[in-house]
Amino acid sequence: MQRVHRDSRRILLRSTLWRAAGFFVFWLIIAGTDLADVPAGLFATGLALWASLLRRPPSTEQLSALKLARFVVHFLRQAISAGVDVALRALSPQLRIRPGFVLYRPHLPPGVRRDAFCTETSLLPGTLPAGTADDGSLLIHCLDVSQPVSDQLAAEETLFMQLFQGGHGHD
After folding, report:
1. What are phi and psi of 131, to 5 degrees?
2. Does 169 have pLDDT greater than 50?
3. Whether the Cβ atoms of residue 104 and residue 137 lie closer than 8 Å to each other
4. pTM above 0.70, yes or no
5. Rounded Cα gap, residues 153 and 31, in angstroms
6. Pairwise pLDDT comparison (144 vs 65), residue with the higher score
7. 111 φψ region: left (φ > 0), alpha (ψ -120 to 50), beta (else)
8. Residues 54-65: what's their mean pLDDT?
9. Looking at residue 136, what DSSP letter applies?
10. For 38-52, b where at least 16 C-beta lie within 10 A, e where not — what string?
């Protein structure tokens, strides 16, 4: 029992340190790498970390680094493909779009993971979560309602959910 508690504390500490590192890297991207600014960056990182820990405490659940890398590659491939498709539609003399709304019933329950999934789908060109219907379905604005948007979202959600299945450490 003591070992489980120690392992959980180690996981929480690692998660917090990774979060802090992410905030600091983000600050460096925005502010630059001038050494004179590092104290301000560390202060800003501390404030961001404090606020994020209040809003979303770290979890003992771990993501698989390999699954995350695969998902990022998939996401980038999807984003580029969808971006090219949107650009071709926009530049086409016959604007091949049928904008409208599609209802999509997600498998993810309301909460942080569903919010993260909505954020991920909002970054893909051609779809934009626009709200939640009374029955809990997501209202998705899309450029072409004749496309299989719901099927594409279901496949995307399945891949997204796989990030959290069996992620015990770094593969």
Report:
1. 150, -170
2. no
3. yes
4. no
5. 36
6. 144
7. left
8. 72
9. S
10. eeebeebbeebbeeb
